[in-house]
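input
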Amino acid sequence: MARRITAHRLTRSLLTSALALGATIAFASAPAQAAAWSTCDRWGSTSLNGYTLYNNIWGSGAGSQCTWANSGSSWGTWAAHPNTGGIKAYPNSTKDVNRTLSGLASLSSSYNVSVPSAGAYNSSYDIWDAAHKYEIMLWVNKTGPVGPIGTLQGSVSLEGHSWDVYKGSNGSNQVFSFLRTSNSSSGTVDILPILRWIANTKGWMPSDELIGTVQFGFEITSAAGGLNFTANNVTVSSS
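output
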């Protein structure tokens, strides 16, 4: 859905008292060394090493959440969201691409994450065109009762990964979701062949679409009692 990178579009509201109370607990969950940046602000963000980091508590009914970072590619989130339905947040790191699909020679990413065995969430890439008409999600792992927008279109194997593909709309933009058929905590994803498959093989978006950003983060529905989500190393490169 158009909800993560576009958090700044939403009306800015005061933090809940639970968010403030969770700050002390959250920072205790950060690495032993002092983080380069940390926030418990609902829309807190910063830029580090060519990436923009967002705490991004965008959903309703959210609890406490804080995000810290050692660098643009090494960061984590402590979240304590209630065990209720609906996505509460998508803390993420964002890399600007701003190249047309036809003009890209390469677009890839490596990920290494540590995620809890409890809660309801997915670890996912969220790729946007510059006009926010198309959203491409790549779920590399998921836990609990979570699912994508749209209907199952079938399965496809691309560049060493097998995906179940869903297509739908959130009312604002088209959403194409690729769910890895087995959970993975580390690996490399060649994103460009996936985008070309969507455009050239399926015809779901133009082959010269301007790709705006690649995000990686944790789409959290529930994290009762407080859970840690860590991006040990996530990098995105393009040419």
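quick obs: The radius of gyration is 17 Å.
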